[in-house]
Amino acid sequence: MSDAVKVGFVPMSAALRGIVVVFCDESLRIGPATAKALGLAPDLIKRAASAGQFKGKDGAVLDMLAPEGIQIQRLIVIGTGKPKDSNKDGKDKDLKDKDFLKYGGSLAGKLNANSEAVTVFAELPEAAMTPDQISALATGIRLRGYRFDRYKTKKKDEEGGLRATISIAVADVAAAKKAFLPRSHIADGVIIARDLVNEPPNVLFPEEFAKRATALRKLDVTVDVLDVPAMKKLGMGALLGVAQGSARPGRTVVMRYDGGKRGEAPVAFIGKGVCFDTGGISIKPSGSMEDMKGDMGGAACVVGLMHALAARKAKVNVVGAIGLVENMPDGNAQRPGDIVTSMSGQTIEIINTDAEGRLVLADVLWYVATKYKPKFMIDLATLTGAILVALGTEHAGLFSNNDELAERLVTAGQETGEKVWRMPLGPEYDKLIDSQFADMKNTGSRHGGSITAAQFLQRFVNDTPWAHLDIAGTAMGAPKSEINQSWGSGYGVRLLDRLVADFYEAKR
Ligand code: MN
Ligand code: ZN
Questions:
Q1: CA 201 from chain center: how many Å?
Q2: Is 191 inside a domain boundary?
């Protein structure tokens, strides 16, 4: 794993050296335990703040070198916004999980390879942070600290890699450790997904991807790898049509984790895993084609999610399935005009070989729907450039045949900050992919491209409650945030883990 940040928990009374991080609101007060441990002059932050134009606003950072009166190298102050007493109801000032993630991210962003000893005081001005808040903070630190530098043989350190052990000073060490354990598995899942997306396509091709997914076996996940003869036997003609142009054979990987009641229908996640997408015979222009190594972001998310769920022993039965291919132009590649027969028996006329993701998903969706009869299926795919036109990089496109599932995804998106925006489906759009020669064609017209892609997928889900997430704008090349500086964002792992935790896990 490409993260070198370790997070540990220590009592508030821990001895101090190096770098200290504290939290302060717009009253420029810090918490009493923090003040006591540091022996800070009560007005130190106030004085430094006026010089540094720091007002304690939410997310603002004040960075002081060798502050007077305490024996530390650096004091970093993170603003948390309005003081609590400005909020009449008292209880909380609406700081959410995602705020603590953000604080963790912004403090980690101030550290670098030379930041050896770091202590973060997990106290708000008015109260010690709760174990949940602390674990969100720790998660933010880990996600921000991630770097993908395994192919850099020089200059790693100057590029801001974080190689630190960060001690979080807390009121209750045991409670913080306990709360962080499941969250640390979720962070691992995000990092696994990022690593897969960032890997170059000469290293990560279908067989290698499948091999990496088998690492889940050590977490009691059953991993079955279907090779080309096995997929032929199942009749996966849509997926195999895409794969046939590559020297590297395709694979379908099915992962199963049973943490729920025996015999209860599983929830299912399906990922598009086009390890490299040249467009095939309908070849793409060369500008930015290298980004198409990320066309497996959906599959990467599913593997990261399976890791998170299995490692934290989620009380749910879950199936993950990913279709892995490489879309290449070749003497053996499929042509526009070809008609393929999918596993469902429905025939597809290929209009554009660059609309390959839906062909891969068609067979994997059908396979999962018919074999596992899941409670719901959610597929993730870097499916269309059109979703970037519609939504930019702030939301994934959400398409669903089930309002309850869609609403739950929207809620989980708001909670985690991995946002989704619902887009329409309908018979008028469905008509646009009827073909004059086969049951359907694999592209509609240019307009509504993300919608016709989703309509295509819907023809392969039977009556299963289903949602499709078009993550072309969020999984890769996404704008950097406080908790992500990586090209591959790992989008979807936290979203779907939360969906499962909040709505589908048996309560303990
Ligand atoms: Mn394509
Ligand atoms: Zn693609």
A1: 20
A2: no
